[in-house]
Amino acid sequence: MAVTTDSTPLDEMGHRQDPVSIYEKHRKELARAKMGQTILLGAVFFGLLVFSVITSQFYPDRLAQAASRLFEYFGTIMPNLEWDKLFLGRDEQGRAIEGSLTFWYTDLDKYLALIWETILMAITATLLGTAGALALCFAGSRNLMQNSWIYFFARRFMEICRGVPEILIALIFVFAFGIGPLAGILAVAIHSAGALGKLFAEVNENVSQRPIDGIRGVGGNWFEQMRYGVLPQVLPNFVSYGFLRFEINVRASSIIGFVGAGGIGQELNRVISFYSDDRVLAVLILVVITVTIIDLLSERLRLYFIGKEQL
Predict the structure, then answer these.
(1) pLDDT tier for residue 195 given thresholds of 50, 70 and 90
(2) Helix (H, G, I), strand (E, B) or coil at 274
(3) Among residues 287, 285, 311, 288, which one has the least CA distance to residue 299?
(4) Of 228, 247, 246, 232, which Cα lies nearest the Cα of 288?
(5) How far apart are alpha carbons 225 and 215 in whole angstroms?
(6) What is the C-alpha separation between 98 and 87, in angstroms, rounded?
(7) Biggest alpha carbon–alpha carbon distance for the chain
C-alpha cells in the first residue's frame, strides 16, 4: 500500500484543501481577533480619557478663563522700568534709582551667589547619584544578575528612591540636619540614584553577551565580567544619561529650596512670601538663563565624551 507524505488537511468531503485558501482563512481569523482587541482597547482608553477629563475638570471654558488670569498675573510681576532711567546706577547716597535695572536687581550679587550654590549642589548630587546608580544597576539587570532575590530587592530599592519626590525627601533631611544645602544634596542624590539606576539597568539589558562569556570562560568572576565585559559597552550611554540628569538636578535643586534645602529656591520662596512680585520675576529670569546655559554646555560635553559619530 502506498504511503503519502502530503500533509495537506482534508475538508469535510475528503478533498484536499488549497494551501493558499488555508493561509487566507487563518489570516482573516487573526485579523478579526486583532480587530476585536483593538476595539476593546480603544473603548477602554476612551473611557479612561473621559473619566480623566471629568475628574480633572479639563474643560475648554475653564481653560479660557484661566488663560486670561494667567496673563494678568504676569502683568503684576513685571517691574516698573522707565526708559530714561533704565541704565542709571546709584545716586550719591548709594541708593539705586527706582525705575532702573539696578533698582530691579539690587540683590544681584546675592542671587548669583545662590545660583552658584545651586549649581554646586546639583554637581555633588549628580556625582553621588551616579555612583549609587552604578552600584545598583548591574544587580538590577535581569540578564546580568542570576540571583532573583538580589535582582528583586535592587529593583524595588531603586523604585523607592525615585518614587518619593525630591522635595519630600528634602523636607525629611531638613528636619534631621537643619536648613542648608546638605539636605538638598542628599535628597537630589537619592532620587538621582533611583532614576539613573533604572536607565542604566535598561542599557545593561541590551548589551552583547559575547564579551561576558569570554571573560567567564577564562575564569573571570562576576565583578570582572561587569567591569571588563559590560561597562565598556555601556559607558557612552551612562555618560549621556549622567549629563541629562545633571540638567534635571539643577532645576530640582532650585525647587527644593522652598523647604529650606539651600540654593536659589530658598530665596525664591522668600520673595514670594513677602509679595515682592518684581523680585520673583528677577529670580526666575536668572534661573531660566542658568538652566539654558547649563543645557548648552552639557550638550557639548556629552558630544565630546560620546563622539559626534555616535549620532
Answers:
(1) very high
(2) coil
(3) 311
(4) 247
(5) 6
(6) 11
(7) 122
195 vs 247: CA distance, rounded Å: 13
C-alpha cell at 268: 525664591
Three-state DSSP at 90 gives: strand
Name the pTM for this structure. 0.76
Residues 218-254: tens digit of each pLDDT? 888 888 889 899 998 898 889 889 988 998 898 888 8
pLDDT digits (tens, 9 = 90+) for 3-24: 445 555 555 555 566 677 777 7
Q: Which ranges in 147-276 belong to alpha helices (H)?
A: 148-163, 166-177, 181-204, 210-217, 222-224, 231-255, 264-273
3-state helix, strand, coil in the chain (%, to 5): 75, 0, 25
Compute the C-alpha angle 244/247/248, nearest 5°.
90
Distance CA 118, CA 114 (A): 6
CA 126 to chain centre: 13
Question: How remote is the C-alpha of 269 from its chain's centroid?
Answer: 24
Task: Report whether 239 contacts 310 (CB < 8 A).
Answer: no
One-letter amino acid identity for 33?
A: A
Contact 263, 254 (CB under 8 A): yes
Q: Is residue 96 classed as helix, strand or coil in its secondary structure?
A: strand
Q: What cell numbers appear for 62 in the block?
A: 475653564
E strand or H helix that includes residue 135: helix 108-137
The C-alpha cell that represents 160 in the structure block: 523607592
Residue 311 CA: distances (Å) to CA of 30, 239, 302, 303:
39, 15, 11, 9
CA distance linking residue 78 with residue 59, whole number of Å: 29
CA–CA–CA angle 18, 19, 22 (5° rounding): 90
